[in-house]
Amino acid sequence: MPDLDDAGSSARAAADTGLAADTGRAADTGRAADTGLAAETAAVTTFWRKLGLPGLVDVHTHFMPPSVLTKVWAFFDDGHAAVGQDWPIAYRQPEQERIALLRAFGVRRFSALSYPHKAGMASWLNSWAADFAARTPDALHSATFFPEPDAAAYVAKAIGDGTLLFKAHLQVGGYDPRDELLEPVWGQLAAAGVPVIVHCGSGPVPGPYTGPGPISEVLGRHPRLTVIIAHLGTPEYGEFLALAQRHPGVYLDTTMACTDFMERLAPFPPRLRSRLAAAGDRVLLGTDFPNIPYRYLEQLQALERLDLGAAWLRAVCYDNAVRLLRL
Ligand SMILES: [Zn+2]
C-alpha cells in the first residue's frame, strides 16, 4: 500500500491521461460532456484547495463486479430505489473512466463498497474487491458479509488480507444485525479495529431491521466496534447523532445527506446543525459515487452550505478519514 504522496502522484498521472482521453472525443455530445466534466473537475479541486487540503478522502463510493453494478443500475433505472423519485445515475462510465474521474477530482483515497442481497455472494464479492484493491493502489480495500455459516471465516480472511473497511447494508440485505451468525463477525471487527459502514437508516426506503434500534443493540454487545453510519443515518438523523454521542466508536458518513435531492426526500433538520458541528471529529465525507442522480460537486456544496466552518470541512473531507483509517 503506497502512502498518500505516492497515490497522489499516480492519481495525477492517471487523471491527466483520463482527461486527455475524454477531451479527445469527436462527437459533439462527447465534447459537451467533457466540457461539463472539466468544469466540474475545476470546481471540485477548487473546493479542497481553498480549504488548504491535499485532496479528498471519500469513504463511501461503489466499485463492484460489472455484472452486479449493471443490476444495481437497472434497479435505480426502474425507480425502485426511492418512492416517487427518478434516479438517473450520473456517472455511468466504464470502470477505468470512473476511477480516472475520481483521481481528477483529487479524491486521494476512495472505497469500493459492495454488498450482498442474499447468501452465497459475499465471499465472491470480497474476492473481486481484493483484486480491485490490488490493481487500484488508491482504493481502500473493502469487503462485506451476510449472516451465513461461513461469514466468520471469510471475514477473518478479508481482515488478514488487509481489508481497511467493511460494508453492511441492512436494507438491501434485509437481515437482522443481531443475527447470531454475525456475532463472531462483529467481534472480529471490534478486535481488529476495522471499521464497518452500516446502512442502517430507514432512508430512502425502510427495511425490517433499519432504524437505530437493532444496530444499537449490536453496539451494546460490542462497545469497541467502529461503526460508520451511512448517509448520516437518513432520515433518523437525530437518533444516530445521539448514538454517536453515546459511543465513541460511532462515526457518520455524509453520503447524499443535505443535497437538494435528499432534502426533498428527507430534509436534515436545521436544529441539528449544532450537534453535527459538535460531532465534527466523527463525520466522514461519503458520496455514493457513481450511483448518484446529480453531480459529485453537489455533495461538497451541500456540506459547504451547512456553514459549519472551514475547520469542520477539513476534518470531514480529509483529516478524520486519514486518522480513522490510518492512511
Ligand atoms: Zn452507498
Instruction: Report the total helices.
Output: 14
Q: What's the shape?
A: globular
**What is the percent of helical residues?**
40-55%
Biggest sheet overview: 6 strands, parallel
The overall average pLDDT, rounded, is 91
Strand content: 5-15%
Q: How far is the N terminus from the C terminus?
A: 9 Å
Gyration radius, in Å: 19 Å
Q: Element order, helices and strands?
A: HHEHHEHEEHEHHEHEHEHHEHH
Give the uncertain stretches in residue-range form.
5-25
Small-molecule binders here are: zinc ion
Number of strands: 9
Structural class: alpha/beta
Major β-sheet strand ordering: 4-5-6-7-8-9
Description:
The strands form two sheets. This protein has a six-stranded parallel β-sheet. Strands 1-2-3 form a three-stranded parallel β-sheet. The chain is an alpha/beta fold. It contains 14 helices and nine strands. The protein starts with a helix and ends with a helix. The radius of gyration is 19 Å and the shape is globular. The longest helix has 23 residues. The structure holds zinc ion. Zinc ion binds next to loops.
Q: What topology emerges from the helices and strands here?
A:
Layout: H1 4-23, H2 28-50, E1 56-58, H3 66-77, H4 95-105, E2 107-111, H5 122-135, E3 139-140, E4 142-144, H6 151-160, E5 165-169, H7 170-173, H8 183-192, E6 196-199, H9 212-221, E7 227-229, H10 237-246, E8 250-253, H11 260-265, H12 273-278, E9 283-284, H13 296-305, H14 310-324
Parallel strand pairs: 1-2, 2-3, 4-5, 5-6, 6-7, 7-8, 8-9
The protein binds zinc ion.
Residues 60, 62, 255, 288 line the site of zinc ion (ZN).
